[in-house]
């Protein structure tokens, strides 16, 4: 560079966007059987822009089809820093021996589970979901007509 020339400004960095509208991450979660017994289970977190409020957790526990839980993205985000959620799903940041993990308590009709997830992996995954659908913009990604059609179709089957 010539000393008389103005330095070239660095190129502007555009907002970071994910290269996919469906981020996925594989990780090992631990099923907490007792405080001293944690069973590692291969799992996958999935997110889709057309379901902007939901993160899916597939846990493969020696079954031909994975067990899938539909989780609230907002509750997962809040649970990284403080206890969050009620009822079917609650998330708590780990303390003491669980430091660096998030405890996810799930209750379904037929089953319940307490899972221990690595907080850095969850945090990274949730950041990638925010590149697809920023928090607060979920409403812009919901096809309300499709939701109403699905509700009407479900109602027609039960009659």
3D structure, described in words:
By secondary structure, this protein is an alpha+beta fold. Helices cover 23% and strands 34% of the residues. It is built from three helices and seven strands; from the N terminus they run E-E-E-E-H-E-E-E-H-H. It has helices spanning 73-79, 119-132, 144-158, and strands spanning 24-34, 37-47, 54-60, 67-72, 89-93, 101-107, 112-118. A seven-stranded antiparallel beta sheet has the order 4-3-2-1-7-6-5. A hairpin with a 4-residue loop joins strand 6 (101-107) and strand 7.
Structural category is alpha+beta
H and E string: EEEEHEEEHH
- Which percent band covers the strand fraction? 25-35%
Q: What's the total helix number? A: 3
Extract low-pLDDT stretches.
Answer: 9-15
The mean pLDDT is: 82
The end-to-end span amounts to 78 Å
Q: Got a strand count?
A: 7
> What does the main sheet amount to?
7 strands, antiparallel
Rg over CA atoms, rounded to whole Å, is 20 Å
Shape: globular
Helix content: 10-25%
As laid out across the biggest beta sheet, the strand order is 4-3-2-1-7-6-5
Features of this protein?
alpha+beta, globular, 159 residues
Describe the protein's topology.
Elements: E1 24-34, E2 37-47, E3 54-60, E4 67-72, H1 73-79, E5 89-93, E6 101-107, E7 112-118, H2 119-132, H3 144-158
Antiparallel strand pairs: 1-2, 1-7, 2-3, 3-4, 5-6, 6-7
